[in-house]
Amino acid sequence: MDISEFFQLTKAPATVAHVISVIFGMGAALVSDLLFSFFAKDKKLNSTEFSTLDILSKVVLYSLVFISISGIFIFFSDVDKYLNSPKFLAKMSILVFLLVNGYLLNRYIWPHLLNKNFFTLKKERNIRRLAFVFGAVSVTSWLCVCVLGVLDKLNMSYSFIMTIYLGFIVVGSLVALAVEKKEFN
Q: CB of 66 within 8 A of CB of 17?
């Protein structure tokens, strides 16, 4: 058995693992973003709320790892097909956005959430705005990856798909900033 046969044989279980990982990752990300907005209403995070967000953050992280590993198996089952698929390339680009967004959230925003006055201090306003924008990028990216994964055929170029995605990112970010402004001004 050569390597290509191995990946073709493992495509079905890799696809199942991939779909389950997407469900957990997207679910945890969407619930996390929803709960963050809900928890922020009283302008403080208690230890239970913080712990809940921390657990959901870890679920998203592990899901992204499993999505990447299972995705590699799927990719190697038919390299030519996937390299010539604008939909696949767009999904991979959006996955990179998710990874960078998650890194930035954990590296720069998360430490500020430990501050009990994060939601009320004027000096935290820019970080708070970024938290809302990163949340919007997360929600938009997960939903776009899901939609692209579900669509069977998509007769659009990579650049057109990415333009639509970036448009959604801009609109989502503007809505997030409006919500932040309404809640915290």
A: yes
Give the side-chain half-sphere CA count within 13 A for 2. 3
Measure the CA–CA gap between 156 and 32, rounded to whole angstroms: 32
Q: In the chain, how many domains are there?
A: 1
Single-letter amino acid code for the residue at 118: F
Q: Which residues contact 180 (CB under 8 A, 6 or more apart)?
A: 128, 129, 132
Strand, helix or coil at 2? Answer: coil
Q: Give the structural domain span for 62.
A: 3-184
pTM: 0.88
**How many residues appear in the chain?**
185
Looking at residue 105, the DSSP 8-state letter turns out to be I
H helix runs in the chain, sequence order: 3-9, 11-40, 47-77, 79-83, 86-104, 110-113, 125-150, 158-184
The C-alpha atoms of residue 182 and residue 167 are separated, in whole angstroms, by 23
Tens digits of residue pLDDT in 140-173: 999 999 999 889 888 999 999 999 999 999 999 9
The label of the residue with tokens 């306003």 reads 125
162 phi/psi in degrees, rounded to 5: -70, -35
Angle 125-150/11-40 helices, nearest 10 degrees? 150
